[in-house]
Amino acid sequence: MNDFLAQIPIFLVFIPVVFSIIIYLFKAKWTTYLSFVSQVLLLIAFFAYLSFWRLHPGDHLLVFGGWSERIGISFFHDGLSLTFSFLAIFIFSVILMYLFKFRRKDHKFFFFFLFLEGIFLGMIQTNDLFNMFVFLELTTVLVTVLISYQKSGPSFQAGIYYLLLNTVGALFFLIGIVFLYNVFGTINIRVLQELIGTQGDRTVVKFAYVIMMSGISVKAALFPLFTWLPKAHGVAQSGISALLSGLVVKGALYVLIRMERFLFVEAGFHMNELFFWIGVVTAIVGVTFAISQKDMKQILAYHTVSQVGIMMMGISQIGLTPFYGGVLHIINHALFKSLLFLGAGILIKHYQTKKVYEIKGALKTFPIVAVMLIIAMLSISGAPLFNGFVSKSMIKYAVKGNFIKEALFFLINLGTVTSFIKFSSVLFGPKAILVKEKNPLQIISIIVLGLSCLGIGLFYQVIASSIFGITISTNLWEISHFLDYGLFLVIGFLFYRFVVKKDYLPFQKIRHFKLTFESANYMFVVYLLVVLGVVFL
Amino acid sequence: MIRRVSLVVMLVIIFGFFVFSILDLEAFFSTFGKDYFFENGLSETGSVNLVTGIYLDYRLFDSLFEAGLLIAAVSGVTWISQHEITEKNATFMLDRQSTPTLFVTFSRLVYPFMLMFGIYVILFGHVSPGGGFQGGAIVATAILILYYIDVQKATSIDKILTIEKILFLTIIGVGSISFFTKGTFFTNPFDLSASEQVKAIYLITLNALIGIKVALGLVAIFTAFLKEGR
Asked: What is the ipTM of this complex?
C-alpha cells in the first residue's frame, strides 16, 4: 500500500492530462462535466498523499524506472511543493467553476485547460532540470494558445509576443542546463545542490547561474522583462487572466525559488541584494504604470507586475522571515488577484466595457461581486485582518533599519492604495439597469476565493506553522496597524483626488507607452549583462 | 544607431564572458553520465543505440511530454488556423500547371523509398541511429510528397488529431505497464536480466507508436499551414 501511495505524484500529473484527452476525444454533451470529476479525483489523490506525507514527514524523492537518482528522472516533495500543488489544484478548480457555464460546449478549451493543469503540477514537483525545461516549454505553448483563444488580430499578436519572448528565456535556461550537465554529469537538482556546494566557485557555474536566472526572470515578469504580461492580459478572457496572473507567473517564481533556495544555495553567490533591488524596481515601475491606466484589466495586470516585485523583495532574503513572507505573499496574491480578475470579469461582461470610469454602481447592481471585490482590494493593499497584511508585514523585515528601503516600501504601498482607490470608483454610483445573467457557479467561485482571503488573514499562524514550521508573532489587533492603514488611505485618497484624477501629461505618456518586441529583447540583453556584471565582479 | 552599436557591444561582452567560462570546462568537467551510459546502457536497456536507451528507458518520462509538446502544439496550431470555409484539399495552393511534370514523376519514384526508409529508421531505432521521433519526421515528409503527386488528395485534420491523441494515451499506457510488473512507472516492463531480444519488444513497440504519432502530428501541422496559406 505504501508503495502505491508513494507513486501518487505521478497521478497528480496524469489525471488531468488523461481527462483532457478523453474530453477531447468524446465530443458528447456530458463529457465536459468530466473536468469536475478530474478535479475531485485530483483532490482525493492530493489529500491521500498529504496524509501519507504527514506520516513520513521530510523530503520525499520518487525516482522513475527504479534507476539511481543521478541517472533517472525524479519527483521531489517537501512542504513547499505540496503547498504549491494544492494552490494550483485549488485555483484551477475555482477558475473551472467560473468558466464552466460559458465554455460548456467547447471541448477543445477543456483540453488545453486541463492539459495545462497537469503540466503545471509536473513543473512544481519535478526534481530534474531538463524535465523542468520541458514543462516550462509546454506551459509556454499552452498558455499561448489560451491567450490567443479568441482568434482575433490583437490576441494573436499578444500570443506570439508571449511565445517568442518566453522561448528566448527558456532557451537561455536550457543553455545553463547544458553547462551544468557538462560540469557535473547529472541534472538532478538535489545531487547538483551538493556538488555545487563542494566546487561552486567556478566561472562555468557562475555563468550557468546567470543565464538560468535571467531566462526564468522573463517568465516571472521581472523588470524590465514584464512587457508580455500587460499585453497578454489585454486580450485574454478574464478567467484566463486570472489563471495567468494567479498561477502561471507564480510557477516561474516557484522555479526561481528552487534555483535560489535549493540548486545554487551552497554556491554562496550572495545575490540577495541584487534580487532585492530588482524586486524594488519591478514593484515601483509596475505600480506607476498601474496608477496611470484607465482600463480595468490593465490596472490589475500592472499590479501583478508590482506585486511580483514585492514577492521578489521577500524571496531574495533566503532563509529569513521575509523569505517566508514572500512565499506566503505568492499564495495570498494568487487568491486575491484571481478574485479581482474574476470579479472584474463579471462586471466587464455585464457593462460591456473595460473602462474604469464608465462602470458605475457595482455595489448596488452586483452586491455580492462588489463585496468580494472590496475584500480583494483590502487584501492587496495590505489592510489588517486580511491576508495581504500578514505577508506584507513579514516582507517589511527586509527593509527595517534602512531609511531608503523603508521609504521605497512606503511609496510602493502608497501607489497600491492609490490605484485601488481609483479602481474602487466602479463600486459607487447609482444602480445600473442591466440584463443580469444567472450563474450560481460563478458566484460560488468568487465567494470561495473571498472567504479564503479572509481565512488566511485571520488564521495565518496555523497556516504558517503547518507550511513552514515557523511562528509569526504579529499581533493582528494592535491599534497602530489600523492607524497606519488609515493614514495610507487618507494620503492615497488625496493623491488620487488631486494628482491622478487630473490625468496630467506624464500619466498619459506612461499610459500609452508600449515596448516593441525588439526593445524587449534589447532589455533582455541589458538585464543579462547587469546580472553578469554583479555576479562576476 | 546608438542602440544597435550598444547592442553589439553588449553582446560582445556577454560572448566574452561566455568564452571565458568555457575555458574553465577544459579542466573542470565530469564524465559521470557518459561513462554510466557506456558501461551499463546496453545491459540495462537492451538497446544498442544508447540514445534510444536513454529516451525510451532512463528518461521515458521526458519523452512522454516531448510527445505531449507536439500534441499541444499541433492542437494549438490547428485551433488557431481553423477557418469557417471548409476546404478539403490543397488545390488552392498547388495546381498541376505550376508543379512541373518532372517533379511529379520523380516524387512518385522517390515516395515508396522514403516511406520505407522512414519505417526502417523507426523500427530499427534501437540498433542503429534513429528512433521514433526521427523516423516519424521522415515518414511525415514522405506523406507530404503525396500532395505533389495527387493534388486532389483530401486530408481530414480532425481524424488525424483524434488518432494522434489515442496514440498518446496508448504511449502513456505502454509506459505504465512496468508498474504492474516491476512496481515502478516508466521503464521497460521486462526484467532487468531479460535478454536483448525480449527487451527489444518493448523498445520497438514504443518507437513505432511514437513514430506514427510524430508523423501524424507533423502532417496535421503541415495541412493546417496549407489551408492557412491560401
From this structure: 0.90
pTM of the predicted model as reported, rounded to 2 decimal places: 0.92
Smallest Cβ distance to B33: which of A21, A185, A536?
Answer: A185
Number of domains present in the structure of chain B: 1
Could you tell me how many CB contacts below 8 A there are between chain A and chain B? 144
- Taking only Cα atoms into account, the Rg of chain A, rounded to an integer number of angstroms, comes to 22
Q: Count of CB atoms within 10 A of residue A100's CB?
A: 19
Q: Indicate whether A201 belongs to any domain.
A: no
The answer to whether position B166 is within a domain reads yes
Using a 10 angstrom Cβ sphere, with 0-12 exposed, 13-18 middle and 19 or more buried, the burial of residue A143 is buried
Exposure string for B188-221, b = 16+ CB within 10 A, e = fewer? bbbeeeeeeeebbebbbebbbbbbbbbbbbbbbb
Q: How far is A280 from chain B (nearest CA, A)?
A: 24
**Number of domains comprising chain A:** 1
Closest CA to B63 of B194, B213, B196: B213
A402-411, pLDDT tens digit by residue? 888 888 888 8
Backbone angles phi, psi at B129, to 5 degrees: -55, 135
CA distances from residue A123 to A142, A225, A270 in whole angstroms, order as listed: 14, 22, 26
Residue B212 is assigned to a structural domain of this protein: yes
Cα nearest neighbour of A142 on chain B: B72
What is the rounded average pLDDT of the residues B149-168?
81
Rounded to the nearest angstrom, the minimum Cα separation between B229 and chain A is 16
Q: Which residue from A204, A206, A532 is facing B28, i.e. has the nearest CB?
A: A204
Residue B163 domain-assigned?
yes
Q: For residue A425, what pLDDT band results from cuts at 50, 70 and 90?
A: confident
Range(s) of the domain holding residue A339: 272-501
Query: Is the pLDDT assigned to residue B85 strictly greater than 50?
Result: no
Q: In which domain, by residue range, is B172 found?
A: 31-228
Residue B223 lies in a domain: yes
